[in-house]
Amino acid sequence: MERPLNLAAAIDAAAATLVGVLDSAVSRHQMTVSPTQLRVLSLISGRPETNVNGLAELLDVVPSSASRLCDRLEATGLLRRVPDPRDRREVRLVPTAAAETLLRELQERRHRAVQVVLDRMPARVQRDLLLALVAFERAAGAPAEVAPDSSARTA
């Protein structure tokens, strides 16, 4: 494998490797739902106010496609459509207890798969990685800093 020439390339390569590790945790086990359906469940699990139109926006699909996805998930007992208590014309998407269990089990499998890789790394490197990932997450969530205009400075 070719070594990355810079930090951004190294992160990109590590992210691709991480995706492979996470995907392998899912593919090694019989999943009753497709990756797209898992994504839908994950999205609505973290967004309790989501309706079909909101889901369509999150998935970047037309509402009818999102609705068909929801139909399939509802048929398997992983999703419920419930009236919005604030506006009875709106319908919210709610994962069932079975869906929450499925997502929790999936997360546990993925964590175990990542832990196998981490266990191959020295403890000091694991700690450094943790600190770097926390800093990266904070920087990604922070608003972009604007460099001061050097022409506005006075001597």
Briefly summarize what is shown.
This protein is mainly alpha-helical and 155 residues long.
Protein model, in words:
The protein has 155 residues and is mainly alpha-helical. The protein has a domain of 102 residues: Winged helix-like DNA-binding domain superfamily/Winged helix DNA-binding domain (Arc Repressor Mutant, subunit A), CATH 1.10.10. The protein contains 6 helices and 2 strands; from the N terminus they run ααααββαα. α1 packs across α5 and α3 packs across α4. The longest helix has 22 residues. The protein is elongated and about 55 Å long.
Major sheet: size, sense and barrel closure? 2 strands, antiparallel
Average pLDDT taken over every residue: 86
Gross geometry: elongated
- CATH T-level fold name of the domain at 32-133: Arc Repressor Mutant, subunit A
| SSE pattern | HHHHEEHH
Distance between the termini: 52 Å
Total number of helices = 6
Based on helices, strands and strand pairing, what is the structural class? mainly alpha
CATH-wise, what's the superfamily of the domain at 32-133?
Answer: Winged helix-like DNA-binding domain superfamily/Winged helix DNA-binding domain
Strand order, sheet with most strands: 1-2
| Helicity range | 55-70%
Q: What is Rg? A: 21 Å
Unreliable segments of 5+ consecutive residues: 146-155
CATH class of the domain at 32-133: Mainly Alpha
Strand content: 5-15%
- Using the 3D structure, state the CATH architecture of the domain at 32-133: Orthogonal Bundle
Number of strands: 2
